[in-house]
Amino acid sequence: MADPLVSIVIPAYRSGELIKEAIQSVFNQSYENYELIIVDNNANEETKEVIQEMIAESNKKIRLVYESVQGNSSARNKGILDAKGSYIALLDDDDMMHPWRIESQLSIALLHPEASIIYGGIDVCSYNGEEIHEQNLAPNVEFFVKPIMKSHHRFKEDPPLLILPSVMFFQKEKAIKAGLFDTKFNPCHTEDTDFSFRMWHSGPFFGVRKSVSIYRRATASFFEKKRQGILDWYQTRKNQDLFFQKLVSQYFNKNDSKNIKNFQLSQSQLLRETSHNILRYSDGRAFARRLLLRAIYADKLDLKNWKWFLRTYYSDGRLKNSLNIKSFANGKLKDDVNIEELEKLFLLP
């Protein structure tokens, strides 16, 4: 039997029953010449049971592979490298595809072999999948990438969009040539930004003019179950810093004042966002104030920096209201993070 043209890759972790809907959405595709690869990335027992149930009940081909290194990058890379298809479609284990997804993205890929990623819009649904909250959302440029890249000659017509994995469609060999997903971003966060950006350097992006997938808006309890022990704000900021430093090494020009200012705008936003996390600690005010002073130094004209700096002097009650929280984080800031490491986030040469 000839190899399938398209390989659909679903990493499996802690989605439980939700992965059944993800798999079923693959079976519902109007295009049939595909294989489905499920990557068991240390999946919990509930998720494994659902996968085995779907394998047993379906006459469709599911290929189950294993990746012991925990993380989105490692899991997706395993699926891509094991794929028999020339084209890869990614899907997260709690999302779903519209029936026309593969057919519509493949048609563009065949028409434009120069494309690095074919994307599409995404619908946002409720956790139970019964209610659509937003429709056909288009990808945007990551907030801290935009100031740096807005002067790039490709930006106006073909900007470096952040493509969510569940709408990514690309040639296997182009992804391998670009270096696949960077495992330094394991377990998760910002790996899709980094991969999108490197693929953008490999060629233009093309989009389907309609929604191709459905993103499930997780409840707080599900997100806690799925990400418990592998993702917190500190890891998120460190991963953002890792990508920010990649941008610095590639695009920073100390002899170009406009370029420096663009990087400072990005730096300012990242520092302010980090201060929000730190202010959630009862002892976080002094350190948040230091970060906000750095943000103000980077961009004195951004009133948001000044407003947040003033908030560091609020009473506890008023600060909690401004952060929309009921109580401060358990523990002390110094017990949860490496302060010296935190000081070094988002530095410029």
Automatic annotation (TrEMBL):
<keyword id="KW-0808">Transferase</keyword>
<dbReference type="GO" id="GO:0016758">
    <property type="term" value="F:hexosyltransferase activity"/>
</dbReference>
<dbReference type="Pfam" id="PF00535">
    <property type="entry name" value="Glycos_transf_2"/>
</dbReference>
<protein>
    <submittedName>
        <fullName>Putative glycosyl transferase, family 2</fullName>
    </submittedName>
</protein>
<feature type="domain" description="Glycosyltransferase 2-like">
    <location>
        <begin position="7"/>
        <end position="176"/>
    </location>
</feature>
<dbReference type="InterPro" id="IPR001173">
    <property type="entry name" value="Glyco_trans_2-like"/>
</dbReference>
<dbReference type="InterPro" id="IPR029044">
    <property type="entry name" value="Nucleotide-diphossugar_trans"/>
</dbReference>
